[in-house]
Design goal:
heterodimer, A: mainly alpha, MetI-like fold, B: alpha/beta, D-Maltodextrin-Binding Protein, domain 2, 9-stranded mixed beta sheet, about 25% strand
Chain lengths: ~260, ~260
């Protein structure tokens, strides 16, 4: 409240408008080109509804997976020193800069039928991950995982360690301190990480089509459905992308309001 | 305030730098060729030969699914030459899009089943694609290779069983090749010409009987509104002329 009394330099307002327009204009273009008369048909079509449902399942599972796997990594990176820590941090955020298609190929090399984990899995149990919904979740988790680590690590670093120490001094076991002090204090970062991972997972395309393939109801998430439609029916594809935008917007705004009350 | 002015000046410089185009006109003519994914290897070679014979011409290729390329042209993407794997999409550009000139059929192609060299699902013929549990990959509906494949499965009377085995619909025929090449899919239906020398050791082609096979016809034409029509016409002439030998060497059949 107090901060708002200070005036924002006009230049910043101007530059902020440029920044916002950079994102808003393409979206406005999308809305402007949407064939509203056909939109209802496209959005209620069997393939769209199936893709939306699958996308929600995949993005949610991937975000949770990223968070669960990212927490211990963030903990180790923020609270212990070991040689090569910078390297490790660079490594875990690599999926963020890696072209997603390369990520898909990398996943194939591990989990594919000839991969070094997927190979034995297939030979011994006849299980193949490729082309399954699990593969789509893994692909989405692979690209969103770095966001979980980054957000949680920042959160752990900003925690007041004295609160944990106090709990420990009062006789709390390590597990108790983690459960009753650390995790609750970390809730805002958990929520932020979840939203970011979820948003990144929802838009995932390259790793998914490479590693999981494209099959309606199993691996064809909304971005894949949009891409397939774009080849033959660009107008329908635009309507479908608008659905993707609307869903992400609703969740991001909704979750922000719920968990991250902005000051 | 001083800093702000410097900031604005920087922004202005960036913006003007974007706006000013190097207006220097050159003698070189550059053409963009939108071609079916199945033509990737053959056209890349033909493009190099064409540039060798026409030192002032540069050929840029965009390979992809013919339906997607046709959509790009209809949406106004710059294109000088179009070479889809089906007359259907040339018709579309001709009637709904900017139109075409100098249209000619320049090649034909047959389809084949491919399996990884270790053939994990033990497939020896087209009919065996109907076996339960075979992981079959096709090009998506609308992609010529995908439509042809479905036509073949229908001709062979195994449409229902084989389509139930499909685990992925790929964006173009090269996507199908990739999934089989990586050993993830048990089988795919692609063009005979997709089994190029590079990958011949990693995949095995299984011929489809002529009685059920489909012959794909490839048309080529200069796209209406081409800014380099003369170079584009020269390229089309090259493909229908000297380029024929190259197409034969890559396994394409002569136009009927």
């Amino acid at each position: 409240m107090a901060a708002s009394k200070r005036t924002t330099p006009a230049v910043f307002v101007l530059l902020a408008i440029v920044g916002i327009a950079f994102v808003a204009l393409p979206l406005a273009g999308l809305a402007q080109r949407t064939p509203w008369s056909r939109a209802a048909d496209v959005l209620t079509s069997d393939s769209s509804v199936t893709a939306l449902r699958l996308s929600l399942v995949v993005a949610t599972s991937a975000a949770l997976l990223s968070l669960v796997m990212g927490f211990p990594v963030a903990w180790v990176l923020s609270r212990s020193t070991f040689p090569g820590r910078t390297m490790v941090r660079g490594l875990v955020i690599l999926p963020l800069v890696m072209p997603p298609v390369v990520g898909g190929v990398a996943l194939l090399s591990v989990f594919g039928r000839r991969g070094f984990l997927g190979g034995p899995l297939y030979d011994l149990f006849g299980v193949q991950l490729t082309f399954t919904t699990t593969a789509a979740v893994l692909a989405a988790a692979f690209v969103s995982f770095p966001l979980a680590v980054l957000v949680l690590e920042a959160g752990l670093r900003s925690l007041d360690l004295r609160l944990e120490d106090a709990a420990a001094t009062l006789g709390g076991s390590r597990w108790y301190v983690l459960r009753r002090v650390t995790l609750p204090l970390l809730a805002p970062q958990m929520a932020a990480g979840l939203v970011l991972c979820w948003a990144r997972a929802l838009g995932e395309f390259g790793a998914t089509i490479t590693f999981a393939g494209n099959l309606q109801g199993r691996t064809q998430t909304l971005p894949l459905a949009v891409f397939e439609r774009l080849q033959t029916d660009p107008e329908g594809a635009i309507a479908l992308s608008l659905l993707l935008v609307a869903v992400s917007l609703a969740v991001i705004v909704g979750l922000r309001a719920r968990f991250l009350a902005t000051r | 305030m001083k800093r702000a002015i410097v900031g604005l000046a920087c922004l202005a410089m960036v913006l003007t730098a974007c706006g000013s185009d190097s207006g220097a006109g050159s003698e070189r003519s550059e053409i963009t060729v939108l071609a079916a994914a199945s033509l990737t290897a053959a056209f890349t070679k033909i493009g190099m030969d064409f540039e060798w014979d026409n030192p002032n011409a540069t050929v840029r290729f965009s390979f992809g699914p013919s339906d997607g390329l046709a959509t790009q042209i209809l949406e106004g993407a710059p294109a000088d030459v179009f070479a889809p794997a089906s007359p259907k999409y040339m018709d579309q550009v001709q009637s709904e899009g900017p139109g075409v000139t100098g249209r000619a059929d320049f090649a034909r192609n047959k389809l084949a089943v491919i399996v990884p060299s270790d053939n994990p699902a033990h497939i020896a013929s087209l009919d065996e694609l109907a076996k339960p549990g075979v992981k079959l990959v096709l090009a998506a509906v609308g992609v010529p290779a995908g439509d042809y494949a479905r036509e073949i499965l229908a001709n062979a009377g195994i449409q229902k069983e084989a389509l139930a085995n499909v685990v992925s619909n790929e964006e173009d025929v090269k996507g199908v090749v990739q999934k089989v090449l990586l050993g993830e899919a048990d089988a795919g239906i692609v063009y005979r010409t997709d089994v190029t020398p590079d990958i011949a050791s990693k995949v095995r082609g299984i011929a489809i009987p002529d009685a059920v096979n489909v012959i794909a016809t490839y048309p080529i034409a200069v796209v209406g509104g081409s800014r380099n029509a003369s170079a584009a016409e020269a390229f089309v002439r090259y493909v229908t002329g000297p380029g024929q030998a190259t197409l034969r060497s890559f396994g394409f059949l002569p136009p009927s």
